[in-house]
Amino acid sequence: MVPDPPVVGPPHVPRPPEVEGSRPETERPGAAAPPDVLRPLHVGLVCPYAFDTPGGVQNHVLGLAAWLGSQGHRVQVLAPGRIPPELHRRYGCPEVVSTGRAHPVAYNGSVARVSLAAGRTVRRWLAEEDLDLVHVHEPLTPGASLQVLRSPGPPVVATFHTATPRSRGMQLAGRVMAGRLARVEAAIAVSEAARRVVVEHLGLDATVIGNGFAPGPDADRERLPGVWRPGGLDVPGPRIAFLGRLDEPRKGLDVLIAAWPGVRARWPGATVVVAGSGSRRLPAGWTELGAISDGERARLLDWCDVFVAPHRDRESFGLVLLEALSAGAVVVAADLPAFVDVVGEAADRHAHFFRRGDAADLIRALGVALGRGADRARRHAPIPQTADAVRPGPGDAVRSGADDPLAALRARYDWSTIGAQVLQVYRGVLPTASAATAPTGQAATSPRP
Question: What's the topology of domain 25-214+414-436?
Answer without folding.
Answer: Rossmann fold (3.40.50)
